[in-house]
Amino acid sequence: MNKSNLKMKSNDHHIVSHIILILACITIIYPFCVIIGASFQSPADLAEHGYRMIPKEFSLEAYKMIFQTSGQLLNSYKVTLIVTLLGTILATTLTTSYAYVISRPTYRYRKILSFYVFFTMLFNGGLVANYLWLSGTLNLKNTYAVLILPLCVSPWNIIMMKGFMMGLPSSLPEAAKVDGASELKIFTRIVLPCSLPGVATITLFYALGYWNDWYTGMIYIDGNDLVCLQLLLQRIIKDIDFLNSAEAMSTGMNTGKELPTVSARMAMCILAAGPMLLIFPFFQKYFRTGITIGSVKG
Amino acid sequence: MKSVTKQSKWTRQIKREGKYFIKNLDLTLLALPTIIIIFIFSYIPMYGLVLPFKDYKVGLGFWKSPWCGFKNFEYLFNGADVLRATRNTVLYNIAFIIIGTIASIAVALMLYNLGKKAVKIYQTILFVPYFVSWVIVSYVVLAMLDMNYGVFNEIIKVFGGEKIMWYNEPKYWPFIITFMNIWKFTGYNAVVYLAALMSIDTTLYEVADIEGATKWQKTRYISLAGIKSMIIMLTIMKVGQIFSGDFGLFYNVPINSSLLYPTTDILNTFTYRALMNMGDTGMSSAATLYQSLAGFILVMITNYITSKLDSESALF
Predict the structure, then answer these.
(1) Is residue B314 part of a domain?
(2) Is residue B182 part of a domain?
(3) Predicted TM-score of the model (pTM)
(4) Could A50 and B149 be called an inter-chain contact, meaning their C-beta atoms sit closer than 8 Å?
(5) What is the Cα–Cα distance from B299 to B302, expressed in whole angstroms?
(6) Per-residue pLDDT tens over the stretch B260-316
(7) B27: domain range?
(8) DSSP secondary structure, A225-292, as one string
(9) Cβ–Cβ contact B114 with A under 8 A
(10) Residue A169 belongs to what H/E stretch?
(11) Closest Cβ opposite residue B26 in set A10, A124, A183
(12) Which chain A positions have a beta carbon within 8 Å of B48's beta carbon?
């Protein structure tokens, strides 16, 4: 009697938890469903019912309009892919090699170089100095370099990677050293393969960072050539006519015709963000590893 | 005589250092590219900490521009905008810290107490907002709040109400901004706390069961007690950042609508506008320095207080 009562109680707890968590999940998923639905709505349907998860009047006009003038979208995909790919490779290389060096207990300048990184977490020069330095002195405005280099060393990732490497048994590199292997060889042949889970995590952190970066572009990129996906989306939401004028200009269409601009904006969001949104959750495991390492070391 | 031995001591020291340097050279070379990148992109811009004391002229550059004392700061604090931005930054961050921490711990505890299978699905979905940028979030908010087509106004219309001009009325935004911040980060933070909960020794719960502890007692004295130092540590770190807002959230989600500045303008967006729209390097850099100094002092104070209360949880 008593026991079943207890069980009931704990099930009640679980039901409440389930309800709360399901509601939380709905607030996350529902808006995305509305964005998808809205991208398929016809202008008339939109005017009548507003954004809907399930369109009353199904229409592909918005996607047609985007694919007729897909130059900018394709170009932005190209920019984002180049930046993400090059940036992630460079960032991972720089981060792991530095982390390896400061994780070696026998290295004389270990402490100085650790502090060298830590200090940048405490102080930074701020927007003005960065802007004047990068765009004025270094003349990096409107280049791929400015989209890649400022983001390629993250102190958090270095510290996380260092923690991971210090957790490895130190006997392996020492044995290799005795056998006469060079440091570069120990790093690439022994330590790196042993830290693959950690490397995978920081690679994903960097990839996500580059993929989602709109801030650097907003400050250092003018014109349309080097506009990445996120920046494109930001420009479209700030100025709905951005799509309209691009359309009108490229097809010579008279602007009097009713264009599915509002749906096209949502369709653009789906086309630009959708693929990554589907891919990244599969890598969640590695992000969780990263969080766990970070929280233990932090 | 004495000076000679001293000198030879010095040369020996230098020789020894040189030997060490050569012995460690291969590792130093391996780290060198990263050292250079950090120097160029983090250390050189630190001249920005001195910049507000200069009357910066583009033509003259940093070195030749004349010093101007605290003039930029006077100029900055004479305007009402910076005070409003400071108030917004601090109040929002306090709301984020309190509500966000409670929400994340609550979700973590719920996930911890539920079965493994359900947790996986919930975790996957709750983690999604962490993967999307604030630009995408601004589309999410627009889908709900768009003044002509948004879901909220459609619902109001169905019930016969007057539609609300969300992007023109500042009074709604404290709730919207706070909600979106919780929306984006609760999943991530819950996973952080969940990882800490997982590391609690499960025999404690078994002992508590034998002793006849209630569910609440177990949560209070085992689960929460077990992650207490982590809660304190994360909170200190967030309190230290109380003067720095999330630019992405405050710039993108209100779509930089100037009508909403009374409740959405924070120090970071203020600094950005001062530089990009007004080209005012003096005021912008002064605001940045003011912001980092205030933050730095706050970290010191909170850390001091924590070290008095619970020396183990303090950061340094």
Answers:
(1) no
(2) yes
(3) 0.89
(4) yes
(5) 5
(6) 999 999 999 999 999 988 888 888 999 999 988 888 888 788 878 777 776 665 655
(7) 1-45
(8) TT--HHHHHHHHHH-THHHHHHHHHHH---TTSPP-HHHHHHHHHHHHHHHHHHHGGGGHHHHHHHHH
(9) yes
(10) none
(11) A183
(12) 124-126, 128-130
